[in-house]
Design brief:
Structural class: mainly alpha
Distance between the termini: 16 Å
Shape: globular
Radius of gyration: 17 Å
Largest sheet: none
Number of helices: 9
Number of strands: 0
Helix content: over 70%
Strand content: under 5%
């Protein structure tokens, strides 16, 4: 149980620090408007994850009750989807584009709302949760609903810590990215390794 949760937390950490639309959005808001605004964005994004966790917990738990073979099919789909994401990252340029000019400022409330809506209405987040979470169920006795919520809260906590650090250290992070043209490619291939590693873990 503990080993599985630690593996899940570590995988979440690697995913959170890999360049993606969410953490790049947080970084951008922090650079343009300041860390307070970046943190408001983080709170919005993380709050949205609770909706996806709830949908996953009750939806997939019902599927497990109906048919365990369907559940295994979901895990296989999840592994294939993660391999597809790895392929998409491989095919991408791997460049991190940071803002060079200021954009009109938004209030922290507006950024919280934008982060929340951006997360909740993104179907790719739902698909990713469906692909990622079932492979880390950790107990044969606990309700699957409880297990999904435990995984959801671990995911939100780890992601919040990483995203909050990105918001607070935005200036230094952006300087590092601009000063090292190779860092984007290192992060790109790290993301590929993470996706493939999780896919293999789910399949095995």
């Amino acid at each position: 149980m503990i080993e599985t949760l630690l593996s899940f937390a570590f995988a979440t950490f690697l995913l959170a620090i890999s360049p993606g639309p969410d953490n790049i959005f947080v970084l951008t808001q922090s650079i343009v408007n300041g860390k307070k605004y970046g943190l408001a964005t983080v709170f919005g994004l993380i709050s949205g994850c609770l909706i996806h966790t709830t949908l996953l917990a009750f939806g997939v738990s019902e599927i497990i009750k109906e048919s365990e073979s369907i559940f295994y099919a979901i895990k296989i789909f999840g592994a294939i989807y993660l391999l597809y994401l790895a392929y998409k990252v491989f095919r991408s340029e791997g460049k991190i584009v940071l803002p060079s000019e200021s954009t009109p400022s938004k209030t922290t409330k507006q950024l919280f709302k934008q982060g929340f809506i951006m997360n909740v209405l993104n179907p790719k987040v739902s698909i990713f949760f469906l692909a990622f979470f079932p492979g880390f169920l950790f107990s044969t006795t606990l309700s699957t609903v409880i297990q999904f919520y435990v995984l959801g809260f671990v995911f939100m906590l780890v992601s919040f810590i990483v995203f909050a650090l990105i918001a607070i250290l935005a200036g230094k992070i952006s300087s590092t990215i601009k000063g090292n043209t190779n860092i984007s490619y290192y992060l790109k291939y790290m993301q590929i390794v993470v996706f493939i590693g999780i896919a293999i873990f789910i399949l095995l």
